Amino acid sequence: MTQRLYMTQDTLAMDTAVVRCSPREDGLFDVVLSATLFHPQGGGQLSDRGTIAGVEVVRVSSQDDEVVHVCERAVALGDARIEVCADARALHARLHSAGHLIGYCGEALGWRAVKGHHWPGEARVVFEGEAGMRVFEAQEIEAMANAHVQAALPRRTVVEGEMRKIGFGELPLNGCGGTHVVSSSDVGRIRISKVKEKKGQVSVHYELERV
Ligand SMILES: [Zn+2]
User: Fold this and answer.
1) Which terminal CB of the chain, N or C, has fewer other CB atoms within 10 Å?
2) Which of 66, 84, 102 is the last residue of a domain?
3) What does the pLDDT look like over 14-45, one tens digit per residue?
């Protein structure tokens, strides 16, 4: 079982231990650590990138109770330094946190956030509402989301057993396994590029102005 330290800390480098390294059919290697800072792909967020003992981590996935790091070369078992790429982490955390802020806005307008996808270039939050509800305009929800950014709401983390919940300021907590900015102001200005209604669902597509 991998200890998932990215759930409770923002640290990007540490010493840990390689407990398994096995070759894959594609020539890469699956590496499992005793504890990791790497966020695996999931929950609508891309995985972290970085290095394990200086070897490039191509992608990271969650498999049962283990986090599997796909590495370019084999790494030795035992003590290893791991480093998460700060730029990729910051971009993914900002996009993901923007999704939380947009979720709050849609919910304040009476909609229910049902899905989030926070990949660069294709980020969106999907809402569902009651039949006949008025769909909001892009600029309406954009102004609301940017008010949350400007308010510099501090991130709140609550761990309840296996479940970790994240919220900003006094806004509601949501169970979530992703990585987040420390303050909503770190997201930077949000631009809502499109609000699309289809089969009772409303997709809010967004971008961040500062990449
Ligand atoms: Zn989250």
Assistant:
1) N
2) 84
3) 999 999 999 999 999 999 999 999 999 998 99
What letters, b where the CB count within 10 A reaches 16 and e where it falls short, cover 33-61?
bebbbbbbeebbbbbbbbbbbebebebbe
Distance CA 203, CA 118 (A): 13
Report the 10 Å Cβ neighbour count for 63.
11
Place of tokens 């070897």: 55
Distance CA 25, CA 126 (A): 37
Q: 37 and 122: one domain?
A: no
Q: How far is the CA of 103 from the centre of ligand 1 (A)?
A: 10
Cα 68 to ligand 1 centroid, rounded to whole Å:
21
Separation of CA 2 and ligand 1 centre (Å): 20
- Tell me the residue range of the domain where 93 lies: 88-208
Ligand 1 mean position, distance from CA 101 (Å): 10
d(CA 38, CA 67): 8
SS3 146: helix
- When divided into structural domains, the chain yields a total of 2
Q: Are residues 7 and 75 in the same domain?
A: yes
Are both 119 and 52 inside the same structural domain?
Answer: no
